[in-house]
From TrEMBL:
Coiled-coil boundaries: none
Compositional bias annotation for Basic and acidic residues: 277-297
Alphabetized InterPro entries for the sequence: LRR_dom_sf (IPR032675), Surface_bspA-like (IPR053139)
Region (Disordered): 244-304
Biased composition regions of type Pro residues, renumbered to the chain: 262-276
Name of the protein in question: MORN repeat protein
């Protein structure tokens, strides 16, 4: 307090109440049936007061608890003190850090749990924020800062106060993310997979891609794609070719000039020349085939609520996301897991993700997503559909997956996705099942349904109200398609003049059925080359047709389409 003038030079002296000027003598008061000693202050601290009982001391400001500590009989603070902000614990620190002029070691109250923070005594800058052990050593996840400037340096893993793995390095506004492969504190052991701009969310302890970035190939260490991010969401991007923007930019090496042949020496005459020995041609060199990349051993990984995506190995082959996971993420990028064979996502996951995009996973065979995932609109009543299901900024893309055979999506997942729905270059895809017939599913409620050029697709199943508001429905160029099964109000359409339906080049389609009200609103209907239909059940369809074009279509379908007079 005011008598401790010698403490004014100590950093952190305010926690020793340096500069507090007492107002009058201490008083004995009774509060809650217990006796306390009350000490008030004046000047800059006139809104504060102390209550003491035995060795325990509580400092209040405007009646709100500000600090708790213990003191000896002579008034000297001992042990640790707990600092509060707005009634919440801010941190715990030892008085000895202040008295001995040491770095400040604090246990802070973070929304993700207790964290240790270390501040430099010389610069007052944060040096470390992260997990710790019972000896208050750096242990587990943490972030290291520059002692002089306070600049963030790296995110890593510590063991016994020693850095053992670097997750990412920070260089100004750029972060370099590394593959989790154990001890990579030596530069030559680091395997980078992404370099780019970022923002740091302190409350979530999360690094969010924001601005320009580059995917780095694990083997060549060259950028394969340039991407623009906004708050963790990819907004644009383009592929790179050996680091070049275009394939033709790479300069071709000039061929070396062939050496000119030397003139043959003149033969020396001899009386009886010996026959010249035969010149043996060297055996042609055998060209070795380029080494193939080894397939990793099957590696299954399950993501739970406590999993960090940096923990997922890039060599994972079968990825499972538990239910009720990852709803705080606004972006999902699975394309860097090039060895994936299967993706299974549970119920109620990724509720904040705006774009679903799988591109170029050529080993992927199956995608399965549960109920109520990738949506803010879960199990709504029918009367609320119009007000909750129209988000054109949300889009769905599965592209360039050469081995993908099946796509299965549960009820209400993607229900508020109203942007693009795109399936392209999936040569092995055999089945699409979205929602459940007989249950309100409402997947992609206001997206247009356009499926084309999938050579092995055999079946399409859409649950009740899936794509109900499809403005443009196109199902064409599917030579292997055999059945289309639709629930209630699937591909119902919108009651506007631009609503259209095209079914074209489906030579092996034998069955198309709906519970009721599918294809009700299309004004323009085009049906071409569907010659082998045997089972057609489309009650209450084609009620608003203004024009039609029908060619080489089984009569059991063609006869249902009549112009609405």
């Amino acid at each position: 307090m005011d008598s401790n003038n010698g403490l004014q030079t100590l950093k952190g002296g305010e926690f020793l109440l340096d500069g507090y000027i007492t107002l009058g003598e201490q008083k004995e008061i009774t509060f809650g049936g217990s006796k306390y000693t009350l000490q008030c202050f004046e000047g800059d601290h006139e809104d504060e007061y102390l209550l003491k009982k035995d060795q325990k001391v509580c400092l209040f400001q405007n009646g709100v608890l500000k600090m708790i500590y213990e003191e000896e009989a002579d008034g000297a603070q001992i042990g640790e003190f707990t600092r509060f902000e707005n009634g919440c614990v801010s941190f715990v620190q030892s008085f000895d850090d202040i008295l001995d002029n040491r770095n400040f070691n604090r246990i802070v109250n973070h929304v993700n749990g207790k964290r240790m923070e270390i501040y430099s005594h010389d610069s007052d800058k944060l040096m470390y924020h992260g997990e710790f052990n019972e000896r208050r050593e750096r242990e587990g996840w943490g972030i290291q800062y520059d002692e002089t400037s306070g600049r963030m340096l790296l995110e890593g893993i510590w063991k016994g106060n020693k850095l053992v793995e670097i997750i990412r390095k920070i260089e100004g506004t750029i972060m370099i993310e590394f593959k989790r492969n154990g001890n990579n504190t030596t530069a030559s052991n680091r395997v980078p997979f992404y370099v780019g701009e970022f923002i740091y969310d302190e409350s979530k302890e999360s690094f969010i891609r924001n601005g320009r970035g580059y995917w780095i190939d694990e083997e060549t260490r060259i950028a394969t794609r340039e991407v623009e991010w906004k708050d963790g969401v990819e907004v644009s991007g383009r592929d790179l070719y050996d680091g070049w923007y275009t394939r033709s930019t790479t300069p071709k090496p000039k061929p070396k000039p062939k050496p000119k042949p030397k003139p043959a020496p003149m033969p020396v005459p001899a009386p009886a020349p010996a026959p010249a020995p035969k010149r043996e041609e060297p055996a042609p060199k055998r060209e070795e085939p380029a080494p193939k990349r080894e397939e990793p051993a099957p590696l299954r990984f399950s993501v739970t609520g406590s999993t960090k995506w940096t923990d997922v190995s890039l060599q994972v082959t079968d990825l499972t996301i538990s239910s009720n996971c990852c709803n705080d993420l606004n972006a999902l990028d699975l394309n860097r897991f090039e060895w994936l064979r299967s993706i299974e996502i549970g119920n109620e996951c990724f509720g904040s993700v705006q774009t679903f995009k799988i591109d170029g996973l050529n080993r992927l065979k199956s995608i399965k997503i549960g109920n109520n995932s990738f949506t803010q609109r879960k199990n709504d009543e029918e009367e609320n559909e119009n007000e909750n299901g129209d988000s054109e900024s949300k889009s769905f893309h599965i592209l360039n997956c050469g081995s993908l055979k099946s796509i299965q999506i549960g009820e209400y997942s993607f229900s508020d996705f109203a942007g693009d729905f795109e399936l392209s270059n999936l040569p092995q895809l055999q089945s699409i099942q979205i929602g459940t017939i007989g249950n309100d599913s409402s997947n992609f409620l206001y997206s247009s349904f356009e499926i084309r050029d999938l050579p092995n697709l055999q079946s399409i199943t859409l649950g009740d109200f899936a794509f109900a508001g499809s403005l443009s429905t196109i199902i064409e160029n599917l030579p292997s398609l055999q059945s289309i099964r639709l629930g209630w109000c699937v591909l119902h359409g919108i009651n506007v003049d631009s609503c259209s339906l095209t079914l074209r080049n489906l030579p092996n389609l034998t069955s198309i059925t709906s519970v009721k009200w599918s294809f009700q609103y299309p004004r323009v209907v085009t049906l071409e080359n569907i010659p082998n239909l045997q089972n057609v059940k489309l009650p209450y369809s084609f009620q608003k047709v203004r024009s039609k074009s029908i060619s080489n279509v089984s009569s059991i379908l063609a006869d249902l389409v009549e112009i609405d007079e």
